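Problem 3 from the worked examples.
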Amino acid sequence: MPEERLLVLVVDDEPAMREVVAMRLADWGYDVCVAADGEAAAQLIRTRAPDLVISDVVLPDMTGLDLLANLTAGDPTRPVILMTAYGTVELAVDAMKRGAKDFLTKPLDYGKLRAVLQAAGRDIALRAEVRDLEQELARPAPTGAIIGKSAAIQDVRDLIERVASTDASALVTGESGTGKELVVRIIHELSARRGQPFIAINAAAMAESLIESEIFGHEKGAFTGAIATRQGCFELAHQGTLFLDEIAEMPNALQPKLLRILEDGKVRRLGGSPEHHFDVRVLAATNREPAAAVKDGQLREDLFYRLSVFTIDVPPLRARREDIPLLAQYFIRHVNQKHGRAIEGLRDEARERLVSYGWPGNVRELKNVIERAIVLADGWIEVTDLPPYFIDVNGAGPEPDAAATEALAGMSLAEVEKRLILDTLKRVGHNKAEAARRLKLDVKTIRNKLKSYGLG
């Protein structure tokens, strides 16, 4: 029996056929209304809004195909099942092309009819779920770009609003791919500094020799290649917000200088003597556990305390699994627009696999998985549209390829290490911080290895 009673309209000019089909449907737990012709059917569709329609192809006042055309014009998502005693392959193909859910021949195979109705009922339930998700996504909220309804993500939203109402510095923590930069940008947009500059600098994505110039700026001729005066990020962010991403990867030698700038509110460009005052709110982020970074000597304790007046920890996706269907629908909507597709949503099994998966790459990985699935899918995302490693619902990602493992045979340990580091960097778009996280190394080690390979 369906979980919710669906209303089925049966359209047939033979009273005995209408009665038999209606009785079967009632026995299966459906509500039923009947019509003898197309006009009566159209009236019932207007007044009763049935969930499904079963119609004979031959009617006194119109054909079932005409009725199908009228139905799909009014609501293309309502399933219509056509039946006839004069079925041909050509007629069945034509009906399916015009949008029929299925095409059955008389005398009816009631086992097949029930299976078709159950499949149609699942589609109706999925569409209702998609509508609920879309309504949830459409709810206006100051932190609406933070998708989810879990308690964990609601805590993040509450903290964002609280932090945005102040002008204090804040440190956003969380694994790579959880959406730390999005949190920072929302804080800026909700703050009194919205409309003013938002400048971001990623300490892990830049060569160590360039970071100092990015922070302080430089005068013309301050060093080889300084062909013009350039303002640093503090000056550029004046009256706005400066976002220091991957702050734990900031070179140790620069951290005390950064702390002094934050405390004094003024900066001296490289190669210059005048001090330039600035009015900047500083927000920082790290994918490392701050206490561990301080203990390891990677992050100065005084700088940590200066930056973390507020701390917002963005939970990993595996800690808020109830948000995955909503996030997936959000990405489906946006990727549909990007690729000109019309994918409706996730089939049950596909949704269950997504919810069960470990998500080491967090929200960023989910977005990539949905984008791949939409390119492959037709109508709905099936489990077969997901990457192959979703067959293992408890997996954290694809297993190493056996051929790739064999290719390492005969290589020295140093050669294997080099290949692993370079391959990992390539997979993460040469993001040193992300490569370091995956390899369980620190960014300085990655940089030193690259220098030893002549690639620093």
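Problem 4, a separate protein:
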Amino acid sequence: MTTTKHKITSEVMIEKDACSETNREGSNSAVSKFFFVLPDYMRRSHSHSSSSSSSNKNGQSSTTSLAVDEDGDLVLDRKPATEAAITIEHSIATELKLVGLQIWRGALLLADYVLSHPELFRDRRVLELGSGVGLDGIVASCLASEVCCTDIDCGTGILELIERNFKRNSELVRAKVSVCELDFLNTDWSPKLRSKLDKIDVIMAADVIYDDEITAGFVATLARLLDETPARAAYVALEKRYVFTLADLDSVAPMYEEFRRCIRRQKRDWQVTELSLDFPQYFAYQRLKQLVLLKIEKKTR
């Protein structure tokens, strides 16, 4: 994470090969392609959908036009059929409260997990909390039957941004998609959101642990969802960020530790498991030891 004049830039934008073909749109926004290796089970369907025209459950269609050079010769796409890309509109640098407008390593870790475990997401109804720019929701929509992406609309137009990013990637989307506002600090949920929550099977979130108040709200929201909806498990990806403190005379990860304290304060009958990260890596990023993927589930009685 790079900080400049009170603004923060994700390491993903600095790492070589994490994304490519970034086109800036204004001083602080961009559209980037995040390439990933297609799992074997996706290669045949992706090759078919990319050949000419495709449609998804939203009724959106995508047509691939044939390009010719100045001599009239056909320009062939040389990209291997084993690779695809997700196109994302995002910010380059933001204040801390707007970090959801960027892509962070936790999102790429969660995307890898979804692609590595299709049996957990295929034909399921998935709720994403703190969707940000929608990358993980798009990945889940490759497998799920329904995806509901949520975030807080604090005047940045983030909900519309998520919708635009889904449209940019319509050739990958097979799920029915909805975008709803959900504020971790507001317990008054809209009728539209409630209608979606009544049907969810799986909850997921990435990179939502960066502020103590928001963390407490996130855990309280998670507790309510696991109590009131059919979902039995949530997958939460994040990166531990260490700082050296004089009080501890050691490097500690205060945001992560507060997250675990918030979980304990709920006193719910949950099983919290830190999952192994030995699953395949499809996206290009540094899979650091500080990255964490937790499964939080209601215990079976």
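Solution to problem 4. The helical segments are 40-51, 105-116, 118-121, 135-141, 158-168, 191-197, 212-228, 254-266. Confidence is low (pLDDT under 50) at residues 51-65.
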